[in-house]
Amino acid sequence: MRRYGLIGYPLTHSFSQKFFTEKFEREGLTDCVYDNFSIVGIGELAFILDDAELCGLNVTIPYKRAVLDYLHDKDEVVGGIGACNCIRIEKGRLTGYNTDVVGFEQSLVRRLAPHHRRALVLGTGGASKAVEYVLQKRGIGYRMVTRQPREGMDDLGYEQVDAAVIASHLLIVNTTPVGMYPQVEECPPLPYEVLTPRHYLFDLIYNPARTLFLQKGEERGAVVENGHEMLVLQAEESWRIWTAG
Fold first, then answer.
1. Which residues pair with 2 in a beta bridge?
2. Considering 18, 23, 64, 91, which one is annotated as catalytic?
């Protein structure tokens, strides 16, 4: 049996388990199984790794950084951004990858327009690192927005995001869990009333499909995208990594 899984906490719902279980059934992969490992601390990972059948793991909140200490090797992206969401396990060695980068970039560009040259990135957690990497790669300038601006960084507090900032940053990416099920009535505190049809709002959240953040963008005519396509793309990239020769 080849075993794969997802580590994170809490795992109240899992796109990955449903996706891979259906994939295995659809492709007749009767020797594969995908499990959820809801762990309250990264130290519990050691017990999961004792399973000799384990071939790969996905990593979600809040362990995309903490898992780095368990890796024997990491690819260039993980080394550059300091966040890992995919682990290949081969002969006891753990190699870290970041498939968020692939998923986000491929999903983002499908609706990206030439005027989306400056971005606001909401949140500074592990997921934001993949977003930063892609924006840098594509030459899109950006500012990070956080409730607690980091000392020595060029972060904006939410209270600093006014009409002028919104007008000069036509791409807004939410990397926080604000608005995720079951807290669907929440959204990042922004002046949504000044959004325009030239704005592009991308939310890494996929449940619900239309967060309040995206709904408020749609009301002003903005282009919007949720995280579902990104998840599908990064899941397929994970499978490619796990099964590469």
1. 32
2. 64
The yes-or-no answer on residue 18 being catalytic is: no
Other beta carbons within 10 Å of 109: 11
Q: Which residue in this structure is represented by tokens 């997921």?
A: 127
The structure tokens listed for 61 are 């909140």
Q: What letter would DSSP give residue 233?
A: H
Expressed in percent and rounded to 5, the helix, strand and coil fractions of the chain are 35, 20, 40
Are 64 and 83 a contacting pair, CB within 8 Å?
Answer: yes
Which H/E stretch holds residue 99? helix 99-108
Q: Tokens 């999903």 map to which residue?
A: 107
| Positions of E strands within the chain | 2-8, 32-38, 54-59, 73-74, 86-90, 93-97, 118-122, 141-145, 171-174, 200-203, 223-225
Per residue in 161-215, pLDDT (tens digit) is: 999 999 999 999 999 999 998 999 999 999 999 999 999 999 999 999 999 999 9
Q: Are 56 and 242 in contact (CB under 8 A)?
A: yes
For 64-75, the DSSP string reads TTGGGGG-SEE-
Give the pLDDT confidence of 48-100 residue by residue, as tens digits.
Answer: 999 999 999 999 988 999 999 999 999 999 999 999 999 999 999 999 999 99
Whether residue 76 contacts residue 84, with contact meaning beta carbons closer than 8 Å, is answered with: no
**Contact 63/6 with Cβ under 8 angstroms?**
no
